Amino acid sequence: MGYGEITASKALALHFLCGVGLAAGYGIARLGCDLSLVADPARTLRLLLVVEGPIIIGIYGRVRRDCEHCSYSKAVARGLLGLPIGALLNAFGAIVLGAPVGLKYWLSTIYWSCLMSLFTVSNL
Q: Where is the chain membrane-spanning (predicted)?
């Protein structure tokens, strides 16, 4: 194993836990709060972001590349700092590619871009 590499089983476990968190968030939205992505996309995406955000940032903070020079809290801080930056880039890309623009769709675009930022950072 080289510097900063993880095993295939650990990578599989990471992706499985992220998928379980996403499924749990959607289950809470669907069954617990009676939300759906079609009827109320902003609230559903916000709930998914609140459930999935700590899971992804926490899990990927544990498998940082340089454990000697980067503490867990520093890795979490980097994840929290990278979230709005990535969300801004994702929102800009979505608007360029034709996402609806306006006050009615603004919250949905923000929550969607934050959620996509989580998934983008987790795969780097």
A: 12-32, 44-63, 75-97
Output the DSSP codes for 40-64. Answer: -HHHHHHHHHHHHHHHHHHHHHHT-
The CA–CA distances, whole Å, from 70 to 38, 54, 62, 63, 67 equal 41, 19, 10, 11, 5
Of 77, 81, 88, 94, the closest CA to residue 114 belongs to: 88
Cα–Cα distances in Å, from 122 out to 15, 53, 113?
9, 10, 14
- Hey, what amino acid is at 79? G
Q: How many Å apart are CA 78 and CA 112, to the nearest integer?
A: 20
Q: What is the pLDDT of residues 4-30, one digit of tens each?
A: 677 888 888 888 988 898 899 888 888
Query: Are the C-beta atoms of 121 and 83 separated by less than 8 Å?
Result: yes
Residues 87 and 113 sit within 8 Å (Cβ to Cβ): yes
**Cα(85)–Cα(18) distance, integer angstroms:** 21
